[in-house]
């Protein structure tokens, strides 16, 4: 029996590609004012490269914790990756918001994110939608984690890959076309709809850790739809549980004045593209396709019911 050597997976490659793009964004910043603390950003990128380099060995090891971290490290670093966006794009100000606002008027006839919560003052609707907005991270992690816990490890890995590719695409857009969004471009609403508990909690979370320039396309919408779509594909019951929260979140990002309606629409487009191409990605990484790539007479090692080349 020949045991496959540790090797990079697609998730490792796209992560390295994103790090290269983000490093390029840091380098481009020197055309203007230097970014405060830029050496720390480059050091963080270097450490991430080292982490990616170690991931294959962690996945091939005998320890359950190492194998888990080898598969999940991109999801565990989401907060840090998102936080870097705000550091890199802070100097951009509102330079791209007028373009998105004009597109908003052209598509929808007005600034929907400004008018909706002011013209439809419903504490009940606001409570429900903002609760769905707050469920953003539970949606993201419930999809791959639920699949992981019931033993569908390959499906969980595919879900992590799909979600992270979605984030990387959105983050690249943020880096090179930063949009502050209506939360910063317009005055906040002050009415009964904005005063409900979930709305105030959402505002507190954003004040605590929002990133400037990360509005278009809405990664909230794109990643949540992808996570729910992957859950529907691999574990329909879980997907159906997540679906109403995701639908509410799509509406909430506009009603709560977190994103322009155009941002949400662009996020849906990104999600549709990712979900459309994932079946082909799955096929390339399926056990049948993998077996077809193994030379005749060579068996692939197994461990705990999982293929070592998966």
Structure notes:
The protein has 310 residues and is mainly α. The protein contains 15 helices and 2 strands. Strands 1-2 form a two-stranded antiparallel sheet. The longest helix is centred in the C-terminal third of the chain and has 25 residues.
What topology does this entry show?
Elements lengths: L9 H19 L9 H23 L3 H13 L1 H12 L7 H12 L3 H8 L3 H12 L1 H14 L3 H24 L5 H4 L11 H13 L9 H16 L1 H20 L5 H25 L1 H7 L8 E2 L2 E2 L3
Antiparallel strand pairs: 1-2
Give a quick account of the main beta sheet: strands, pairing sense, barrel closure.
2 strands, antiparallel
Written as H for each helix and E for each strand, in order along the chain, the element string is HHHHHHHHHHHHHHHEE
What is the CA-based Rg, rounded?
21 Å
**Per the principal axes of the C-alpha atoms, what is the gross shape?**
globular
Secondary structure tally, helices: 15
Strand order of the largest sheet: 1-2
Derived from helix and strand composition plus strand pairing, the structural class reads mainly alpha
In short:
With about 300 residues, the protein is an all-alpha fold. It is built from 15 helices and 2 strands. α7 (about 125-135) crosses α13 (about 235-255), α8 (about 135-150) runs antiparallel to α13 and α12 (about 220-235) packs antiparallel against α13.
Descriptive tags:
globular; 72% helix; mainly alpha; disordered C terminus; two-stranded antiparallel ribbon; 310 residues
């Amino acid at each position: 029996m020949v045991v496959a050597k540790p090797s990079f997976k697609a998730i490792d490659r796209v992560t390295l590609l994103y790090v290269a793009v983000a490093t390029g964004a840091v380098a481009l910043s020197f055309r203007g004012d230097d970014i405060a603390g830029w050496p720390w950003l480059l050091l963080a990128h270097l450490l991430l490269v080292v982490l990616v380099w170690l991931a294959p060995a962690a996945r091939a090891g005998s320890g359950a914790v190492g194998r888990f971290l080898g598969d999940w490290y991109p999801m565990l670093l989401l907060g840090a990756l998102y936080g870097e966006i705000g550091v890199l794009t802070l100097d951009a100000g509102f330079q791209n918001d007028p373009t998105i606002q004009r597109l908003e008027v052209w598509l929808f006839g007005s600034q929907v994110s400004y008018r909706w919560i002011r013209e439809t003052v419903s504490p009940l609707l606001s409570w429900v939608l903002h609760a769905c907005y707050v469920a953003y991270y539970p949606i993201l992690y419930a999809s791959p984690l639920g699949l992981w816990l019931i033993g569908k490890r390959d499906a969980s890995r595919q879900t992590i890959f799909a979600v992270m590719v979605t984030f990387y695409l959105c983050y690249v857009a943020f880096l090179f076309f930063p949009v502050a969004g209506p939360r910063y471009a317009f005055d906040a609403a002050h009415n009964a709809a904005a005063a409900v508990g979930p709305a105030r909690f959402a505002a507190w979370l954003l004040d605590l850790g929002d990133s400037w320039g990360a509005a278009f396309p809405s990664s909230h919408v794109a990643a949540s739809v992808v996570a729910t779509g992957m859950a529907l594909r691999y574990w329909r019951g879980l997907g159906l549980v997540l679906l109403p929260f995701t639908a509410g979140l799509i509406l909430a990002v506009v009603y709560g004045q977190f994103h322009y309606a155009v941002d949400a629409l662009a996020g849906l487009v990104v999600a549709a593209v990712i979900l459309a191409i994932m079946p082909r990605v799955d096929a390339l990484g399926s056990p049948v396709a993998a077996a077809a790539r193994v030379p005749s007479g060579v068996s692939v090692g197994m461990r705990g019911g999982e293929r070592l080349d998966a």
